[in-house]
Specification:
With 111 residues, the protein is mostly helical. The protein is built from three helices and no strands. The termini are far apart.
Length: 111
């Protein structure tokens, strides 16, 4: 079979590491001007260093209340020993909630 066009020239071998380095520098220049690149942390989540005790305790308290509601809802949806486990989790969450609320009151009294 006769082709209408000749074969395209072969692709030369590019050193992609140079292209990646240049692209990374360009992206970093425009997205992070003057900021150092943060070092990766061991964990998935981090807590900002500039947050105060009250902010941390309030967020912990709200998270515990949300988790407690989820566990309470789940406890009434299941039966048997799994329900006992869910109720045990609810009781433990209530205890931790009391500890966080007490710490919040000590750190920042309302009166």
């Amino acid at each position: 079979m006769i082709k209408d066009s000749p074969n395209p020239p072969g692709q030369p071998d590019f050193d992609t590491s140079t292209l990646h380095e240049v692209a990374y520098r360009a992206i970093n220049h425009y997205l992070n001007p003057g900021k150092p690149i943060p070092e990766p942390t061991d964990g998935l989540f981090t807590v900002r260093a500039d947050l105060g005790t009250e902010t941390l305790l309030v967020n912990a308290s709200q998270d515990l209340a949300s988790i407690s509601e989820i566990a309470n809802h789940m406890a009434f949806e299941i039966e048997g020993s799994q329900r006992n486990v869910a109720l045990g989790i609810c009781r433990m969450l209530e205890g931790v909630q009391l500890l966080v609320d007490k710490a919040l009151n000590v750190a920042h009294p309302t009166s």
